[in-house]
Every structure is written in structure tokens, then in C-alpha cells.
Amino acid sequence: MNVAETVTNNVVLPHARYARTWDSIIVDQRIKDRLLRWAVLSLRLRGQLPFEATALHGLMLLYGPPGTGKTTLARGLAQQLAPAMAKGKARLIELNPHGLMSAEHGKSQQKVTDLLTAHIPALADDGLPTVVLLDEVESMAVARSEASLSANPADVHRATDAVLTALDDNAAQYPHLLVVATSNFTGALDTAFLSRADVVIEVPPPDAEAALAILASTLRDMASAFPALGDLADDPGLKGVASLLAGIDGRQIRKSVTEAMTGRLETVQRPDRLTVDDLRRTAERIASARRTTGKESRAAF
Fold it and tell me: What is the span of the domain harbouring residue 48?
């Protein structure tokens, strides 16, 4: 994979495609508020003050289990930033770094440097505030203390060094760049990378209240095709279903509605006939499987 191929998305916002992205992730509002405020303030301070005054690297880290909405929040952040910026616009650049790290021996360092210090700034050379989404950053900023466990520890060291150097260089040269990194395994991240993060925000699995909101939102979205599901979204029994799904990742909570529809031939043919009992039975299977396996997994029929 060459450097250009690691860029999977480059779009100027606001854009209709991302109009619902921010609201689609149901988390504690304080998480969203903190993320947005940090982003706005970071761009403002770094645009007006030298790095030596702020010590801000323009790096934000979202961490938590898979399926909690970290990537979607980062995308939504770019959309939310746009109206707060001077020109009413912002850019979102998404990266897939995995290909760089599977490059032949000795090439990772140069490719990481080219990507972060040359290619990305060139894509954002119009000066628009730009969110650079670096998903699963542990693939690039591996803890060097653990490199002895790797098949190619020298290359791991060089690639991580390249990431750190790029963050240092970009902090001063490109104050309009804001890197939002996500990680499922913060223990795998290099401590020097963590120290460069201006803010580290946990995105936890949904609690019962959030699970209820996710279920209701999913049912209301489906009601555009199956109107009866809109009434189901307001059923008081949904609260009990949500309590069973607390702690399950948000992606699987949404999928549990579809899974419940497969429980009966009638609801396969007529999804609008889904009931709270259907949802509860599915939630009980998911909760049982979770207790058995010790992890959030979907129950098999």
C-alpha cells in the first residue's frame, strides 16, 4: 500500500452525509461536550500562540472497547466543528494505517513520515481546520517497551519514532491540523505517544439508560419503513430489555433489534409485528452468552 492509498476519505464539511453522525452515537453528553470544546479551543489557541506557549500537539485520543462509537464520534466532530470555524467549514481526512505497518522491512518509518508530514498537510494546504482521523492508532504507535515481543522490533521502534517526530513537527507547522486517534487497547500504545495527547477521553460501553436510548432510536429509525415500530419504541417494557443489554457495545445493541426479528417467521415476514417479548428473549440470550463467555458476544439461536 502506498501513502496515498491510506487516505480512505477526504471531504469538506458540513456535508449531508454526516448530518446525523454526531447524534447517532448515544453516550454521556459530557463526553461529546468535552470532545467538542477541546477541539475548538485547541484549534483556536494553536492558531494564535506558538507551541512553546501552549504545549498542545493537536492530538486527541478516544479509547474504549470496540463498538462504542469512537470512530463515528470523530467523524461527527468534524461536522460539528464546521459552524464554529471562521469560514463555516472544516475538513475530515480518514486514514487506514494498517497497510503502512505491513510494508516490507525498513519501509514503515519512511512511509509514516511521508504520510503525516507531507501527504496530509498537502491535502489540507488551503488552511481549513482539518480533523485527521487515525483509527486503531495502536498499529502505528506501538509501545516500544513491548517491541521485543514483535517479529520485527527494530521496524516497530522506527515507525513509532516517526509518528512521534511527525506529531512534534506538525504541532508547530500546521496548527489547523487536529489528529483524533482511536484505540481499543491503550496498553499497547507507546507512553511517549500518550504523553503527547492533549486530551484522553474514554468512551465506555452503554449503561442501561444509554441502551434504552439506543433501542428506542433504532426502532424509530426503522419506523420509517415499519410504522408500528415507532409505538414499540415508547413501550414501557423496553426499559427491562435495556437493563439486560447494559454493558454490551452500542453496535450490538442496535443489531439486537434485527436479531429479535429473526426469532419468529412472522416477524421475518412482518417486522412491524415485533414485540417487547421478542426483544426481551433476544436480550436474555445475549446476556446469557455474555455471562458464559465473559465477553460481549451475540447469542446463537
Answer: 3-202
